[in-house]
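Preliminary data (for renewal application), NDP complex.
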Amino acid sequence: MFKSEYLNRVYAEVEHRDAHEPEFLQAVREVFESLELVVDQHPEWEAVGLLERFVEPERVIEFRVPWVDDSGKTRVNRGYRVQYNSAIGPYKGGLRFHPSVNLSVIKFLGFEQVLKNSLTTLPMGGGKGGSDFDPKGKSEAEVMRFCQSFMTELYRHIGQFTDTPAGDIGVGGREVAYMYGQYKRIVDRFEGGVITGKGLTFGGSLARTQATGYGLCYYAAEALKHLKGDSFEGKTVVVSGSGNVAQYAAEKCTQLGGKVVAMSDSQGYVYDPKGIDLKKLFDIKQKRRARISVYANEVPGSEYVEGCRNIWKVKCDVALPCASQNEMDVEGAKSLIANGCMGVFEGANMPLTPEAIALIQSSGLLYSPGKASNAGGVATSGLEMTQNSMRLSWSFEEVDEKLQGIMKNIYKACYDASVKCGKPGDLMVGANVAGFLKVAEAMMAQGVV
Ligand code: NDP
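Predicted structure:
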């Protein structure tokens, strides 16, 4: 499958051991396809089993999360923390609460996180965790009890110098706050740096909430400018999802002159030819925690369409998939191409299937993998930890300025690596190779551990 015998051998081992983990295998395959371009220049990697170690998490923790619902019934969910790679810093990566969570999903996210964190240039290793708990439809008290039970096990595995979780799908400010409260109660120390995405009154960073979506747009704007001599100005944009990443991607690209005409949730999408009314969207999603279909009921001239995958049929210049993995398949990619789309920039982790990526790239559209374009979230989490250690708070403008600088640097690192690999402008190859080389160098230096 790969030209390199070493990559073939390691991939075959992964496939054999983890045959039942499709998302994880997909992520490894994609990265190996890029490493193909550099592996022959580094015979020293094979000599010390570098790739064998790179694909294997340093530690996998799986645990029971018992909690009592409002009717008094005991429920049991499964919790995970995958501490993937600590070569360049303490494990860092979010927690996802969603019924689809399983070990394959958490391992793929952790694996991607290692490379993403490396790209940020901050000293953070990679990890990820979560649970198959679904916060939707649960009362406030049930969410609190679940978060407390989850942290009652997780606390023994984390710490500001060990492993520092954050949010992800289903884990926003509310869940982070409940988990931090329980952590603090158990260890009896105010260790702010143990988790990021905290509230502003207890050590959170300004602009962390906005960072992933804003960072995505800063990265996309940089790519549009550098590779196409263009910008968001006057562009029609489709943003899938309507959660944290999607909301602030929509806000920033609107500020940069784009018009967001469609957004979705897992049930369907809304189309508003005038441009999505963000105040209304934020009210529906942040305050009322309601379905996106409510938007079409309340905004004249907009319409609701069942089925979130149909969103890619909406004509646009720029597509920002910000919902979940494998949300865009070949059909979606074909629709974007037929409608003259210029570029796809991933806000979510691995939202395009491998076939969709191949089609998008071979059709000459710009394409950026999430590990590069959505790295602004974890980068700002890194900035939150810095502020916690320094015991001070930067202004929104200071954090936002640092975020812009980081996203520009990530873009440059990806582009430069793509050139070195003989594939100028292939930001997927650039992200994988640039992210990996730093981790590889640190792993080589630290010996067989
Ligand atoms: P949220 O929980 O805030 O929002 C998720 C959104 O995606 C919701 O609109 C949800 O709809 C939708 N969604 C979830 N699952 C599916 C699915 N299977 N098909 C279609 N839509 C779905 O999560 P975030 O915005 O935080 O995360 C979105 C993506 O961005 C994820 O891939 C995450 O890993 C990635 N990411 C997040 C970062 C962050 O800082 N939060 C950082 C970097 C990456 P519904 O409400 O109906 O479930």
